[in-house]
Amino acid sequence: MQFTSDSPVLPIDLPALALDIKRWAQELGFSQLGITDTDLSAAEPAHQAWLEKGFHGAMDYMAKHGSKRTRPQELVPGTLRILSVRMNYQPPATRDSWEVMADGESAFISRYALGRDYHKVLRSRLQQLCDRIAAHIAPLTDDSFDYRVFTDSAPVLEVELAQKAGLGWRGKHTLLLSRDAGSWFFLGEIYTNLPLPVDTPGQNHCGTCHACLDICPTQAIVAPYEVDARRCISYLTIELKDSIPESLRPLIGNRVYGCDDCQLACPWNKFGQLTAQEDFHVRHGLDNASLVELFGWDEATFKERMAGSAIYRIGHEQWLRNIAVGLGNAPSSPEVISALKKRLDHPSPLVNEHVRWALKQHEHLSAAAL
């Protein structure tokens, strides 16, 4: 895709328009909007080095787009500015995360996935924002307002863009941090040819803190600001489609979809804000569900319950794989053993392998107890 015109010559006050856009964004439920240019040259060497180390694992899409991720004008020619937005997602009235993880019979699901799929929610709101900008500009000029919206859906270096747009800074766990809201929010972007004034980049406030590095169950944060995705539980339970390495399975505990440990340990998240968006409220009791219960879902139930959820895209087979690992790490009980044995004849080799591993874990526990 290429924008159809160069920078439109607008007979309007661009700084005033930028303020209007920020106000409209808040009216649409975004917590903050910032504006930046397309220069990511400072971030490009570190991103390339990360790829060369193979830290992206099986996420081939991270490398196949070449420099489009770090050069926005190559992704969408004609781009002059990026509007970066954030939207809070921390749902209210959820069971405490640490309590869930300490309860080996429960299933922990990352807080961002307890409600509806953020891709759809943010994309819809971003489109509404663009529609409003277009309607405002149309009577004033014949020039084209060109744009393209992104919600984790294309090669976009969203954390770096958000930092440049003044929404916060890249924390040592590589997520964006805000002094006012921690990290419990989604990011989205609008690429546009509007020559709007840019905002002041965010400043780093991590200091000497290394809580996120210390807490990571698999030590995936191999250095400040550097994550080896191949060890990250979010990658292992969501992005990895094959067998989870056996050496990492015991470290996953009962985290069956994603991992929030680095965020939970971050001191800045004491400023985290609850979402005002009902779309991100807990659905189907996923904040307080047992491993055995979720493992009992057949494919039809999974599709029905997870329709409209980010979890839907991993599919039933991967869902069972993840929960089998959780059950392998759970305290032994007749209910756990029975649930696993019922899946021994599952037609998926992937599920079957992880079920057998889980049962062996309980055999070892039984032997050790004698």
UniProtKB/TrEMBL annotation:
Residues involved in [4Fe-4S] cluster 1 binding: C206, C209, C212, C266
UniProt entry keywords in alphabetical sequence: 4Fe-4S, Cobalamin, Cobalt, Cytoplasm, Iron, Iron-sulfur, Metal-binding, Oxidoreductase, Queuosine biosynthesis, tRNA processing
Residues reported to bind tRNA: K241
GO molecular function terms attached to this record: 4 iron, 4 sulfur cluster binding; cobalamin binding; epoxyqueuosine reductase activity; metal ion binding
An annotated GO BP: tRNA queuosine(34) biosynthetic process
Note on how the cofactor is bound: Binds 2 [4Fe-4S] clusters per monomer.
Family annotation (Pfam families): Fer4_16 (PF13484), QueG_DUF1730 (PF08331)
4Fe-4S ferredoxin-type domain: residues covered: 194-226
Localisation per UniProt entry: Cytoplasm
UniProt-listed Enzyme Commission number(s): 1.17.99.6
Residues the record lists as binding [4Fe-4S] cluster 2: C216, C232, C259, C262
Primary localization: cytoplasm
Active-site residues per Swiss-Prot or TrEMBL entry: D152 (proton donor)
Oxidoreductase listed as a keyword: yes
Protein residues bound to cob(II)alamin: R69, D152, L176, L187, S234, C259, D260
Pathway: tRNA modification; tRNA-queuosine biosynthesis
GO cellular component labels: cytoplasm
Cofactor(s) the protein needs: [4Fe-4S] cluster; cob(II)alamin
NCBIfam families: tRNA epoxyqueuosine(34) reductase QueG (TIGR00276)
Family: Belongs to the QueG family.
Job description of the protein: Catalyzes the conversion of epoxyqueuosine (oQ) to queuosine (Q), which is a hypermodified base found in the wobble positions of tRNA(Asp), tRNA(Asn), tRNA(His) and tRNA(Tyr).
Subunit description: Monomer.
Protein name as annotated: Epoxyqueuosine reductase
Gene name in the database record: queG
